[in-house]
Amino acid sequence: MNTSRPFAVVILAAGKGSRLKSGVHKVLHNIAGRPIIEHLMAQVAVLEPAHTIVIVGDEREQVIDQVSDRATCVVQEPQLGTGHAVAQAKEALAGFDGDVVMLLGDAPFIKAATMVEMLERLRASDEPAVVVLGFEPEDALQYGRVITHRDMTIEKMVEFKDANEAERACRLCNSGLMAARSSDLFDLLERVDNNNAQGEYYLPDIVNVAVKDGRTCAAVVADRPHEVLGINSRKELAAAERQFQDLRREDALENGVTLKAPDTVFFSYDTELAEDVVVEPNVVFGPGTKVERGTRIRAFSHLEGAHVGEDCEVGPYARLRPGAVMKNGSKVGNFVEMKKATLGEGAKANHLTYLGDATIGAGANIGAGTITCNYDGYFKHQTVIGERAFIGSNSALIAPVNIGADAIVAAGSAVSRDVAAGELRMVRGEQLVKPGWADRFHDTMKKKKAAEKKG
Q1: pLDDT classification of 105: cutoffs 50, 70, 90
Q2: Torsion, Cα of 15, 20, 25, 30 (10° steps)
Q3: pLDDT tens digit string along 215-245?
Q4: Which is catalytic among the residues 51, 307, 351, 381?
Q5: 39 part of the active site
Q6: Could you check whether the bond before residue 322 is cis, i.e. omega within 30 degrees of 0?
Q7: In the chain, is it the N or the C terminus that has fewer CB atoms within a 10 Å radius of its CB?
Protein backbone atom coordinates (compact mmCIF):
# COMPACT_ATOMS: atom_id res chain seq x y z
CA MET A 1 0.00 0.00 0.00
CA ASN A 2 1.12 3.55 -0.67
CA THR A 3 1.86 4.78 2.84
CA SER A 4 2.90 8.30 1.90
CA ARG A 5 -0.42 9.62 3.15
CA PRO A 6 -1.62 8.78 6.68
CA PHE A 7 -5.10 7.45 7.33
CA ALA A 8 -7.60 7.40 10.15
CA VAL A 9 -10.38 4.96 10.98
CA VAL A 10 -13.85 5.94 12.16
CA ILE A 11 -15.96 3.10 13.60
CA LEU A 12 -19.70 3.63 14.02
CA ALA A 13 -20.94 2.05 17.25
CA ALA A 14 -23.70 4.37 18.44
CA GLY A 15 -26.73 2.32 17.43
CA LYS A 16 -29.18 1.00 19.99
CA GLY A 17 -29.25 -2.59 18.79
CA SER A 18 -32.83 -2.90 20.04
CA ARG A 19 -33.50 -6.05 18.00
CA LEU A 20 -31.01 -7.97 20.15
CA LYS A 21 -33.23 -7.33 23.20
CA SER A 22 -30.24 -7.10 25.53
CA GLY A 23 -28.74 -4.87 28.20
CA VAL A 24 -25.36 -5.52 26.56
CA HIS A 25 -24.42 -3.17 23.71
CA LYS A 26 -24.65 -5.01 20.41
CA VAL A 27 -20.97 -4.56 19.50
CA LEU A 28 -20.00 -6.25 22.79
CA HIS A 29 -21.81 -9.51 22.11
CA ASN A 30 -19.34 -12.32 21.56
CA ILE A 31 -18.44 -14.27 18.46
CA ALA A 32 -16.02 -17.12 19.14
CA GLY A 33 -15.22 -15.77 22.59
CA ARG A 34 -14.46 -12.22 21.46
CA PRO A 35 -16.67 -9.10 21.37
CA ILE A 36 -17.86 -8.14 17.90
CA ILE A 37 -16.00 -4.83 17.93
CA GLU A 38 -12.76 -6.50 19.03
CA HIS A 39 -12.71 -8.61 15.86
CA LEU A 40 -12.83 -5.34 13.95
CA MET A 41 -10.33 -3.54 16.17
CA ALA A 42 -7.82 -6.35 15.71
CA GLN A 43 -7.87 -5.93 11.92
CA VAL A 44 -7.62 -2.15 12.22
CA ALA A 45 -4.61 -2.47 14.54
CA VAL A 46 -2.73 -4.46 11.89
CA LEU A 47 -2.62 -1.34 9.70
CA GLU A 48 -1.55 1.05 12.48
CA PRO A 49 -3.77 4.03 11.58
CA ALA A 50 -2.84 7.54 12.71
CA HIS A 51 -6.19 7.83 14.51
CA THR A 52 -8.87 5.35 15.56
CA ILE A 53 -12.17 6.99 16.47
CA VAL A 54 -15.21 5.14 17.78
CA ILE A 55 -18.57 6.91 17.61
CA VAL A 56 -20.65 5.97 20.64
CA GLY A 57 -24.20 6.73 21.71
CA ASP A 58 -26.60 4.30 23.34
CA GLU A 59 -25.08 2.40 26.30
CA ARG A 60 -21.91 4.37 25.57
CA GLU A 61 -20.21 3.58 28.88
CA GLN A 62 -20.00 -0.09 27.96
CA VAL A 63 -18.27 0.62 24.65
CA ILE A 64 -15.99 3.27 26.13
CA ASP A 65 -14.85 0.84 28.82
CA GLN A 66 -14.05 -1.73 26.14
CA VAL A 67 -12.08 0.36 23.63
CA SER A 68 -10.97 3.67 25.15
CA ASP A 69 -7.44 2.40 25.76
CA ARG A 70 -6.96 2.10 21.98
CA ALA A 71 -9.35 4.61 20.46
CA THR A 72 -10.79 8.08 20.86
CA CYS A 73 -14.48 7.78 21.74
CA VAL A 74 -16.81 10.51 20.44
CA VAL A 75 -20.46 10.78 21.49
CA GLN A 76 -23.27 11.06 18.93
CA GLU A 77 -26.31 12.55 20.65
CA PRO A 78 -28.96 12.61 19.31
CA GLN A 79 -28.49 9.81 16.77
CA LEU A 80 -29.61 11.14 13.42
CA GLY A 81 -28.15 8.60 11.02
CA THR A 82 -24.82 7.29 9.80
CA GLY A 83 -23.83 10.53 8.06
CA HIS A 84 -24.49 12.48 11.22
CA ALA A 85 -22.44 9.91 13.15
CA VAL A 86 -19.32 10.34 11.00
CA ALA A 87 -19.70 14.12 11.19
CA GLN A 88 -19.14 13.89 14.95
CA ALA A 89 -15.51 12.90 14.26
CA LYS A 90 -14.71 16.30 12.73
CA GLU A 91 -13.32 17.84 15.89
CA ALA A 92 -11.27 14.74 16.76
CA LEU A 93 -9.71 14.90 13.28
CA ALA A 94 -9.10 18.66 13.26
CA GLY A 95 -5.81 19.35 11.56
CA PHE A 96 -5.53 15.81 10.21
CA ASP A 97 -4.59 15.71 6.52
CA GLY A 98 -5.03 12.18 5.27
CA ASP A 99 -7.58 9.54 4.37
CA VAL A 100 -10.47 8.29 6.46
CA VAL A 101 -11.83 4.74 6.42
CA MET A 102 -15.37 4.45 7.77
CA LEU A 103 -16.34 1.10 9.31
CA LEU A 104 -19.36 -0.33 11.12
CA GLY A 105 -18.88 -1.59 14.66
CA ASP A 106 -21.38 -4.39 14.12
CA ALA A 107 -19.60 -5.75 10.99
CA PRO A 108 -16.76 -7.75 12.57
CA PHE A 109 -15.27 -9.69 9.67
CA ILE A 110 -13.78 -6.98 7.45
CA LYS A 111 -10.15 -7.82 6.72
CA ALA A 112 -7.17 -5.49 6.87
CA ALA A 113 -6.45 -6.41 3.23
CA THR A 114 -9.86 -5.12 2.18
CA MET A 115 -9.27 -1.81 3.95
CA VAL A 116 -5.97 -1.57 2.07
CA GLU A 117 -7.79 -2.21 -1.21
CA MET A 118 -10.20 0.65 -0.45
CA LEU A 119 -7.35 3.03 0.35
CA GLU A 120 -5.41 2.05 -2.74
CA ARG A 121 -8.46 2.77 -4.91
CA LEU A 122 -8.90 6.12 -3.15
CA ARG A 123 -5.28 6.95 -3.99
CA ALA A 124 -5.53 5.94 -7.65
CA SER A 125 -4.70 8.40 -10.44
CA ASP A 126 -8.35 9.39 -11.07
CA GLU A 127 -8.57 10.50 -7.41
CA PRO A 128 -12.13 9.45 -6.52
CA ALA A 129 -13.80 11.59 -3.88
CA VAL A 130 -15.31 8.54 -2.15
CA VAL A 131 -14.69 4.80 -2.36
CA VAL A 132 -17.53 2.45 -1.41
CA LEU A 133 -17.12 -1.21 -0.51
CA GLY A 134 -19.86 -3.10 -2.31
CA PHE A 135 -20.85 -6.75 -2.17
CA GLU A 136 -23.17 -9.14 -3.96
CA PRO A 137 -25.13 -11.29 -1.50
CA GLU A 138 -27.24 -14.29 -2.52
CA ASP A 139 -30.30 -12.40 -1.35
CA ALA A 140 -30.03 -8.62 -1.70
CA LEU A 141 -32.88 -8.14 0.78
CA GLN A 142 -33.25 -4.50 1.78
CA TYR A 143 -29.65 -3.39 1.41
CA GLY A 144 -28.94 -0.04 -0.17
CA ARG A 145 -27.85 -0.31 -3.80
CA VAL A 146 -24.69 0.94 -5.52
CA ILE A 147 -25.51 1.90 -9.10
CA THR A 148 -22.30 1.84 -11.14
CA HIS A 149 -20.98 2.38 -14.64
CA ARG A 150 -19.09 -0.44 -16.38
CA ASP A 151 -15.76 0.82 -15.04
CA MET A 152 -17.11 0.56 -11.47
CA THR A 153 -17.32 4.30 -11.01
CA ILE A 154 -20.56 5.17 -9.24
CA GLU A 155 -23.59 6.71 -10.87
CA LYS A 156 -25.59 6.96 -7.63
CA MET A 157 -26.27 5.44 -4.22
CA VAL A 158 -29.79 4.68 -3.14
CA GLU A 159 -31.34 3.25 0.01
CA PHE A 160 -33.70 0.34 -0.60
CA LYS A 161 -36.70 2.22 0.78
CA ASP A 162 -36.04 5.05 -1.65
CA ALA A 163 -35.14 2.88 -4.67
CA ASN A 164 -37.35 2.26 -7.68
CA GLU A 165 -37.88 -1.22 -9.15
CA ALA A 166 -35.01 -0.95 -11.63
CA GLU A 167 -32.62 0.17 -8.89
CA ARG A 168 -33.74 -2.64 -6.59
CA ALA A 169 -32.88 -5.11 -9.36
CA CYS A 170 -29.21 -4.08 -9.08
CA ARG A 171 -27.15 -6.84 -7.43
CA LEU A 172 -24.37 -4.64 -6.06
CA CYS A 173 -25.21 -3.68 -2.49
CA ASN A 174 -23.76 -1.10 -0.15
CA SER A 175 -21.86 -2.58 2.78
CA GLY A 176 -21.82 0.79 4.57
CA LEU A 177 -18.00 0.81 4.56
CA MET A 178 -16.38 3.76 2.79
CA ALA A 179 -13.18 5.75 2.41
CA ALA A 180 -12.62 9.43 1.63
CA ARG A 181 -10.00 12.13 2.07
CA SER A 182 -10.35 14.17 5.22
CA SER A 183 -10.18 17.30 3.07
CA ASP A 184 -13.35 16.18 1.23
CA LEU A 185 -15.25 14.21 3.83
CA PHE A 186 -16.61 16.83 6.20
CA ASP A 187 -17.49 19.27 3.42
CA LEU A 188 -19.52 16.53 1.74
CA LEU A 189 -21.20 15.60 5.03
CA GLU A 190 -22.29 19.19 5.65
CA ARG A 191 -24.18 19.12 2.35
CA VAL A 192 -26.10 15.90 3.04
CA ASP A 193 -29.79 16.44 3.86
CA ASN A 194 -32.34 14.20 5.53
CA ASN A 195 -34.98 14.31 2.80
CA ASN A 196 -35.64 10.57 2.78
CA ALA A 197 -38.01 7.91 4.12
CA GLN A 198 -36.24 7.72 7.48
CA GLY A 199 -35.61 11.42 7.97
CA GLU A 200 -31.95 10.64 8.66
CA TYR A 201 -28.61 11.85 7.33
CA TYR A 202 -27.30 8.90 5.35
CA LEU A 203 -23.55 8.45 4.97
CA PRO A 204 -23.92 7.01 1.42
CA ASP A 205 -25.36 10.35 0.31
CA ILE A 206 -21.86 11.86 0.34
CA VAL A 207 -21.38 9.91 -2.88
CA ASN A 208 -24.43 11.51 -4.46
CA VAL A 209 -23.24 14.97 -3.39
CA ALA A 210 -19.81 14.34 -4.91
CA VAL A 211 -21.29 12.97 -8.15
CA LYS A 212 -23.46 16.07 -8.51
CA ASP A 213 -20.24 18.10 -8.19
CA GLY A 214 -18.87 16.18 -11.18
CA ARG A 215 -16.43 14.23 -8.97
CA THR A 216 -15.59 10.59 -9.56
CA CYS A 217 -16.62 8.05 -6.93
CA ALA A 218 -15.70 4.38 -7.19
CA ALA A 219 -16.82 0.99 -5.89
CA VAL A 220 -14.61 -1.84 -4.70
CA VAL A 221 -16.28 -5.25 -4.45
CA ALA A 222 -15.67 -7.56 -1.48
CA ASP A 223 -14.53 -11.00 -2.64
CA ARG A 224 -16.70 -12.80 -0.09
CA PRO A 225 -20.04 -11.35 1.03
CA HIS A 226 -19.61 -12.75 4.55
CA GLU A 227 -16.83 -10.23 5.14
CA VAL A 228 -19.31 -7.37 5.40
CA LEU A 229 -21.99 -9.20 7.37
CA GLY A 230 -23.67 -6.88 9.87
CA ILE A 231 -25.24 -8.06 13.11
CA ASN A 232 -28.50 -6.55 14.35
CA SER A 233 -30.42 -9.49 15.84
CA ARG A 234 -29.90 -12.72 17.75
CA LYS A 235 -30.53 -14.61 14.52
CA GLU A 236 -27.79 -12.65 12.75
CA LEU A 237 -25.48 -13.13 15.74
CA ALA A 238 -26.02 -16.88 15.52
CA ALA A 239 -25.40 -16.76 11.76
CA ALA A 240 -22.13 -14.87 12.34
CA GLU A 241 -21.01 -17.45 14.89
CA ARG A 242 -21.86 -20.23 12.47
CA GLN A 243 -19.99 -18.48 9.69
CA PHE A 244 -16.91 -18.01 11.85
CA GLN A 245 -16.94 -21.63 12.97
CA ASP A 246 -17.36 -22.96 9.42
CA LEU A 247 -14.36 -20.95 8.22
CA ARG A 248 -12.19 -22.01 11.17
CA ARG A 249 -13.09 -25.66 10.62
CA GLU A 250 -12.09 -25.37 6.97
CA ASP A 251 -8.81 -23.72 7.96
CA ALA A 252 -8.06 -26.44 10.51
CA LEU A 253 -8.70 -29.24 8.02
CA GLU A 254 -6.58 -27.54 5.36
CA ASN A 255 -3.73 -27.15 7.85
CA GLY A 256 -3.43 -30.79 8.81
CA VAL A 257 -5.86 -31.12 11.71
CA THR A 258 -8.24 -34.08 11.81
CA LEU A 259 -11.78 -33.22 12.87
CA LYS A 260 -13.81 -36.40 13.26
CA ALA A 261 -17.12 -34.54 13.21
CA PRO A 262 -16.34 -30.96 12.13
CA ASP A 263 -19.79 -29.52 12.74
CA THR A 264 -19.57 -30.44 16.44
CA VAL A 265 -16.22 -28.79 17.14
CA PHE A 266 -16.24 -25.15 18.25
CA PHE A 267 -13.23 -22.85 18.09
CA SER A 268 -12.34 -19.62 19.81
CA TYR A 269 -11.00 -16.68 17.83
CA ASP A 270 -7.42 -17.52 18.87
CA THR A 271 -7.38 -21.33 18.98
CA GLU A 272 -4.08 -22.78 17.74
CA LEU A 273 -3.96 -26.41 16.62
CA ALA A 274 -0.78 -27.91 15.13
CA GLU A 275 -0.53 -30.50 12.37
CA ASP A 276 -1.64 -34.04 13.19
CA VAL A 277 -3.83 -32.98 16.08
CA VAL A 278 -6.94 -35.15 16.17
CA VAL A 279 -10.16 -33.68 17.55
CA GLU A 280 -13.04 -36.05 18.28
CA PRO A 281 -16.73 -35.00 18.30
CA ASN A 282 -18.25 -32.37 20.61
CA VAL A 283 -15.10 -30.55 21.67
CA VAL A 284 -15.15 -26.86 22.63
CA PHE A 285 -12.09 -24.61 22.59
CA GLY A 286 -12.36 -21.47 24.72
CA PRO A 287 -10.01 -18.49 24.36
CA GLY A 288 -6.29 -18.89 24.84
CA THR A 289 -5.80 -22.54 23.89
CA LYS A 290 -2.83 -24.00 22.02
CA VAL A 291 -2.42 -27.68 21.13
CA GLU A 292 0.83 -29.10 19.78
CA ARG A 293 1.48 -31.75 17.12
CA GLY A 294 0.23 -35.31 17.50
CA THR A 295 -2.16 -34.72 20.40
CA ARG A 296 -5.61 -36.27 20.52
CA ILE A 297 -8.51 -34.36 22.05
CA ARG A 298 -11.18 -36.91 22.79
CA ALA A 299 -14.93 -36.38 22.72
CA PHE A 300 -16.86 -33.95 24.95
CA SER A 301 -13.80 -32.12 26.26
CA HIS A 302 -13.59 -28.39 26.99
CA LEU A 303 -10.29 -26.48 26.85
CA GLU A 304 -9.77 -22.82 27.74
CA GLY A 305 -6.55 -20.95 28.46
CA ALA A 306 -4.64 -24.22 28.16
CA HIS A 307 -1.38 -25.27 26.50
CA VAL A 308 -1.24 -28.92 25.53
CA GLY A 309 2.11 -30.32 24.38
CA GLU A 310 2.97 -32.89 21.74
CA ASP A 311 1.55 -36.44 21.72
CA CYS A 312 -0.77 -35.87 24.65
CA GLU A 313 -4.23 -37.29 25.21
CA VAL A 314 -7.09 -35.25 26.62
CA GLY A 315 -10.42 -36.74 27.66
CA PRO A 316 -13.02 -37.85 26.91
CA TYR A 317 -15.04 -35.53 29.14
CA ALA A 318 -11.99 -33.60 30.35
CA ARG A 319 -11.93 -29.95 31.30
CA LEU A 320 -8.79 -27.85 31.03
CA ARG A 321 -9.26 -24.41 32.60
CA PRO A 322 -7.01 -21.33 32.34
CA GLY A 323 -3.42 -22.03 33.33
CA ALA A 324 -3.58 -25.74 32.55
CA VAL A 325 -0.34 -26.98 30.97
CA MET A 326 0.23 -30.51 29.72
CA LYS A 327 3.81 -31.38 28.85
CA ASN A 328 4.68 -33.74 25.99
CA GLY A 329 3.22 -37.23 26.29
CA SER A 330 1.07 -36.53 29.33
CA LYS A 331 -2.50 -37.69 29.66
CA VAL A 332 -5.74 -36.70 31.35
CA GLY A 333 -8.73 -38.97 31.02
CA ASN A 334 -12.45 -38.85 31.60
CA PHE A 335 -13.81 -36.37 34.14
CA VAL A 336 -10.43 -34.83 34.95
CA GLU A 337 -10.30 -31.09 35.59
CA MET A 338 -7.12 -28.98 35.58
CA LYS A 339 -6.77 -25.32 36.62
CA LYS A 340 -3.45 -23.45 36.97
CA ALA A 341 -1.74 -26.81 37.01
CA THR A 342 1.18 -28.31 35.08
CA LEU A 343 1.28 -32.00 34.25
CA GLY A 344 4.85 -33.09 33.53
CA GLU A 345 6.09 -35.17 30.61
CA GLY A 346 4.51 -38.61 30.54
CA ALA A 347 2.49 -37.95 33.69
CA LYS A 348 -1.04 -39.33 33.87
CA ALA A 349 -4.32 -38.52 35.57
CA ASN A 350 -6.62 -41.02 33.95
CA HIS A 351 -9.96 -40.33 35.59
CA LEU A 352 -12.12 -38.53 38.13
CA THR A 353 -9.48 -36.08 39.36
CA TYR A 354 -9.17 -32.37 40.17
CA LEU A 355 -5.73 -30.76 39.82
CA GLY A 356 -5.76 -27.10 40.81
CA ASP A 357 -2.78 -24.85 41.60
CA ALA A 358 -0.45 -27.82 41.23
CA THR A 359 2.81 -28.90 39.62
CA ILE A 360 3.08 -32.59 38.80
CA GLY A 361 6.46 -34.01 37.87
CA ALA A 362 7.33 -36.13 34.84
CA GLY A 363 6.10 -39.71 34.93
CA ALA A 364 3.88 -39.23 37.98
CA ASN A 365 0.66 -41.21 38.24
CA ILE A 366 -2.44 -39.60 39.76
CA GLY A 367 -5.02 -42.16 40.86
CA ALA A 368 -8.77 -41.94 40.33
CA GLY A 369 -10.63 -39.62 42.67
CA THR A 370 -7.56 -37.62 43.69
CA ILE A 371 -8.07 -33.95 44.49
CA THR A 372 -5.68 -31.14 45.32
CA CYS A 373 -7.43 -29.24 48.10
CA ASN A 374 -6.11 -25.85 47.03
CA TYR A 375 -8.57 -23.37 48.59
CA ASP A 376 -9.00 -22.65 52.30
CA GLY A 377 -11.93 -20.29 51.84
CA TYR A 378 -9.68 -17.23 51.52
CA PHE A 379 -6.50 -18.12 49.61
CA LYS A 380 -5.26 -20.62 47.04
CA HIS A 381 -2.28 -22.83 47.90
CA GLN A 382 0.15 -24.92 45.86
CA THR A 383 0.60 -28.66 45.63
CA VAL A 384 3.90 -29.98 44.24
CA ILE A 385 4.19 -33.63 43.22
CA GLY A 386 7.61 -34.97 42.32
CA GLU A 387 8.72 -37.05 39.37
CA ARG A 388 7.44 -40.63 39.21
CA ALA A 389 5.37 -40.18 42.37
CA PHE A 390 2.34 -42.45 42.71
CA ILE A 391 -0.81 -40.99 44.22
CA GLY A 392 -3.30 -43.68 45.17
CA SER A 393 -6.99 -43.45 44.36
CA ASN A 394 -9.34 -41.28 46.41
CA SER A 395 -6.54 -39.25 47.95
CA ALA A 396 -6.90 -35.66 49.18
CA LEU A 397 -3.73 -33.58 49.00
CA ILE A 398 -4.31 -30.65 51.35
CA ALA A 399 -2.28 -27.68 50.11
CA PRO A 400 0.24 -26.32 50.67
CA VAL A 401 1.97 -29.68 50.43
CA ASN A 402 4.94 -31.27 48.65
CA ILE A 403 5.11 -34.90 47.58
CA GLY A 404 8.68 -35.97 46.80
CA ALA A 405 10.00 -37.84 43.78
CA ASP A 406 9.20 -41.58 43.73
CA ALA A 407 6.99 -41.22 46.81
CA ILE A 408 3.79 -43.22 47.20
CA VAL A 409 0.61 -41.93 48.74
CA ALA A 410 -1.63 -44.83 49.70
CA ALA A 411 -5.19 -44.93 48.42
CA GLY A 412 -7.71 -43.12 50.57
CA SER A 413 -5.17 -40.87 52.25
CA ALA A 414 -5.72 -37.26 53.32
CA VAL A 415 -2.24 -35.76 53.19
CA SER A 416 -1.64 -32.45 54.98
CA ARG A 417 2.13 -32.66 55.57
CA ASP A 418 5.00 -32.98 53.13
CA VAL A 419 5.99 -36.45 51.92
CA ALA A 420 9.71 -37.05 51.42
CA ALA A 421 11.19 -38.55 48.26
CA GLY A 422 10.79 -42.32 48.18
CA GLU A 423 8.50 -42.34 51.21
CA LEU A 424 5.18 -44.15 51.62
CA ARG A 425 2.48 -42.07 53.28
CA MET A 426 -0.71 -43.71 54.50
CA VAL A 427 -3.22 -41.51 56.32
CA ARG A 428 -6.28 -43.56 57.25
CA GLY A 429 -8.41 -44.07 60.31
CA GLU A 430 -7.94 -47.36 62.19
CA GLN A 431 -10.05 -50.14 60.69
CA LEU A 432 -12.42 -51.52 63.33
CA VAL A 433 -13.96 -54.99 62.92
CA LYS A 434 -17.00 -56.22 64.91
CA PRO A 435 -17.82 -59.82 63.96
CA GLY A 436 -21.55 -60.57 63.71
CA TRP A 437 -22.59 -56.95 64.28
CA ALA A 438 -24.16 -56.54 60.84
CA ASP A 439 -26.16 -59.77 61.12
CA ARG A 440 -27.57 -58.71 64.51
CA PHE A 441 -28.40 -55.24 63.12
CA HIS A 442 -30.28 -56.68 60.15
CA ASP A 443 -32.26 -59.09 62.34
CA THR A 444 -33.27 -56.32 64.74
CA MET A 445 -34.36 -53.94 61.98
CA LYS A 446 -36.35 -56.61 60.11
CA LYS A 447 -38.26 -57.51 63.29
CA LYS A 448 -38.98 -53.81 63.94
CA LYS A 449 -40.25 -53.27 60.40
CA ALA A 450 -42.48 -56.38 60.62
CA ALA A 451 -43.94 -55.17 63.91
CA GLU A 452 -44.80 -51.77 62.34
CA LYS A 453 -46.69 -53.47 59.48
CA LYS A 454 -48.76 -55.54 61.93
CA GLY A 455 -49.59 -52.41 63.91
Answers
A1: very high
A2: -120
A3: 999 999 998 888 998 899 999 999 999 999 9
A4: 351
A5: no
A6: no
A7: C
